[in-house]
Design goal:
By secondary structure, this protein is α+β, with helices and mostly antiparallel strands. It folds into two domains: 199 residues, no CATH class; 152 residues, Reverse transcriptase/Diguanylate cyclase domain (Alpha-Beta Plaits, 2-Layer Sandwich), CATH 3.30.70.270. It has 13 helices and five strands. A five-stranded mixed beta sheet has the order 2-3-1-4-5, with helices on both faces. Helix 2 runs parallel beside helix 5.
Length: 372
């Protein structure tokens, strides 16, 4: 994987988790927009009178464009999978709000009323404090406001000095907002990277690069719930390197570590689905998880595990099984209708592993029962 691909993957991961974490803030933005629309609509009614001919057009301009989109956004904040690009939806929603604001300015102008710059400045300032969009989106929205408003002032033939004055105000508001937002986004990304690093350290086995058993129970329970939700079978294999103590005793612990690394890398090549996992459970024991498989596919996968490590051809002259490194595996297939819990599944897979060792090692044994 190239540096650009890694960078793109890291950014995609950041944006995905950012949107998940910012769902509550997106709800606040939706509520804030609704409150602002109601408040300014009440101001329209107070200023012009409820019976004024332009009231209907004003209310339609304020609500018709942005309101349906923000209702949609609010509903989407409750969706976890797939992750909703809320930063894009909120940016689009704010663009609709500002477009409706300019329609309001035009309606008032046609009534012979030129609204002051206050509302435009307020929108520019508020834009830079929206929590769940990025600085470049905030800048884009504010530049849109600035461009449209200056164009509007030209349209109504405002004196040039007034147009320049408004442009200067908006420029410095945008400059201050941009400096703040860039700094805030950098700090937020830095905190994310630090958290990701610590989480990676907490869940990664430092020797082999596989996952470790930290939070394994919690993750496995979530995986079973996902399997039931999507009606997908799951294969669980407990894998143990045959005669590893003899390998360590005769080749040394440094060679033993190198052997563990090579075996782990071989097992990692078996991952196909994002929810597949390879966990170093302790010593020379690994747990493999394959998501979205049938019983027949599980059987073939189990044999592939054995063949993959056998094909590494790592010498082991002191093994009782072969003259190379081999593994034994205990395998169980979990069906989404199964009532077996995590502990029961692990126990049955462990029994199958014991049977594989008893039968001569370098093989896989599959536990079969109606409860699978």
């Amino acid at each position: 994987m190239s540096v650009d691909q890694v960078t793109h993957k890291t950014r995609a991961s950041y944006i995905s988790k950012f949107n998940l974490q910012q769902r509550r803030n997106a709800q606040y933005v939706c509520a804030g927009v609704l409150f602002a629309l109601l408040a300014f609509s009440l101001w329209d009614i107070h200023y012009l009178g409820a019976s004024h001919d332009a009231i209907y057009a004003l209310l339609l301009s304020r609500f018709a464009i942005p309101l349906p989109l923000f209702i949609f956004i609010f509903i989407k904040t409750y969706q976890v999978q797939p992750v909703v690009p809320l930063h894009q939806l909120v940016t689009l929603g704010m663009l609709m709000v500002f477009s409706s604001l300019f329609m309001v300015h035009i309606i008032y102008y046609n009534l012979g009323i030129t609204l002051p710059i206050d509302s435009i400045l307020l929108c520019s300032v508020i834009t830079y404090f929206i929590p769940n969009i990025f600085y470049y989106q905030k800048l884009g929205l504010s530049l849109f406001i600035m461009f449209w408003y200056i164009s509007f002032l030209h349209y109504i033939d405002l004196p040039q000095n007034e147009i320049i004055r408004a442009a200067i105000y908006l420029f410095f508001v945008n400059l201050a907002g941009l400096v703040h937002s860039v700094s805030f986004d950098k700090e937020r990304r830095s905190n994310f990277d630090k958290t990701q690093f610590l989480e990676s350290m907490a869940r990664t086995d430092q020797l082999t690069g596989t996952e470790n058993r930290h939070k394994f129970d919690e993750r496995f329970v979530e995986l079973l719930e996902q399997g039931k939700l999507e009606n997908q079978g799951i294969a669980i294999a407990i894998v143990d390197i045959d005669c590893f103590k003899q390998y360590n005793d005769n080749y040394g612990h440094l060679a033993g570590d190198e052997c563990l690394i090579k075996v782990a890398h071989g097992l990692l090549t078996l991952k196909r689905h994002p929810l597949d996992a390879c966990i170093r459970f302790g010593g020379e024991e690994f747990i493999l998880i394959r998501y979205g498989v049938t019983l027949e596919e599980t059987t073939r996968w189990g044999q592939k595990i054995i063949n993959t490590i056998y094909a590494l051809n790592l010498p082991h002259a002191y093994s009782d099984a072969e003259n190379r490194i081999t593994i034994s595996a205990g395998l169980i297939h979990w069906h989404p209708t199964s009532s077996l819990a995590r502990t029961q599944l692990m126990t049955l897979a462990d029994h199958a592993l014991y049977k594989a060792k008893q039968n001569g090692r370098n093989q896989v044994q599959i536990h079969l029962s109606k409860e699978n």
